[in-house]
Amino acid sequence: xxxxSDTVQYGKLEVKVIDAKTKKPIEYAMVTIENxxxxxSHCSDSNGLFILDKVTFGIYNIYSSFTGYSKMKLQNxxxxxxxxxxxxxxxxxxxxxxxxxxxxxxxxxxxxxxxxPTQQNLNNKQIMRMPx
Length: 132
Description:
Blueprint: H1 2-7, E1 10-19, E2 30-35, E3 38-43, E4 49-56, E5 58-65, E6 72-79, E7 84-91, H2 124-128
């Protein structure tokens, strides 16, 4: 029973996501690693890092996206046994407001101004006039 777990060997993936112009890390960028049998997505941390331990060795596609930036994709990235694969995504700001998970373009609207309360009691007429 224990012999089987010793035969599977893993690598580690470290991805750094930064703004191509400012070279500053992008926090909360969505990073996805996938192949035919595995898919994992997670957000980068405050340093722009996405770290994934215990990745089964093999070939993967890796994506990065964040609202306002052009999506990036690296294909056929090799994760080797007992080693760390380092990648850097230098994302280009596109200025477009888009959903990070799809190609929908979203209008930029600010519903709450800094000086307004964040909780209000609304009647039916006010709710019906809300811009959704």
